[in-house]
Amino acid sequence: MVFAFIISTLTGERPFVLFYQVYTEIAPTISSEPSDSQSETVGHLSRTRGCKSHIAGIAETVHSEYQFRRETKSITAEEDLARLTNDDTLPDFEMGHFTVPLSSLSSTFAASDSMFVTWMGAAFTGFTLVCEACENRLLAEHILRLIVRFLQEHVRVLNQPMEVASRVERVNEVLKRILRNGNLLFLNHRAVRQIEKELDSSMKTLS
């Protein structure tokens, strides 16, 4: 089970959460936060304050780990963007995993003893999956790579991360195809090809 998917910034002193979707026992909470003074929230809004606090804490940990790794490698965001060629070749991503302490779970997410976080980031943008502890971590990493691939193709999230706020429907469309009701499922080549076709068709109707 996936508890949450997060898109956040990786540069600057503190991260900024651009988008998150939380899957709970009742209904998903979806939020896009385009600026400090404006936010758009769709779906079930109970426990929103606690949810935002936990999401922000996870984004801060991802930001810290990413910054540390990039400092040791001396790679800049501009170098990542330069690797985005015309054929949509993705840059080399930093990737990591960490667990979230039981004390921070509260009642934000569906009942579970613990959860782990898988993240990947490049340029200015980080992507995070928060999963149940029993989930396969290699599968989580594979699914996260697929999500990022399709988000870059249809949202250009690495080139223009702040555009996520105005293209929430496209982000949701990608998540709906890959994370069905928050389930982490293995997708073979045929399934991925089918998702490609479905997204190509559905994106034509979205702005």
UniProtKB/TrEMBL annotation:
Top-level taxon of origin: Eukaryota
GO cellular component, one term: late endosome
InterPro entries membership: AP-5_subunit_s1
Signal peptide (from-to): none
Database matches in Pfam families: AP-5_subunit_s1
Biological process terms in GO annotation: double-strand break repair via homologous recombination; endosomal transport
PANTHER family given in the database record: AP-5 COMPLEX SUBUNIT SIGMA-1
Protein name: AP complex mu/sigma subunit domain-containing protein
Species whose genome carries this gene: Pomacea canaliculata (Golden apple snail)
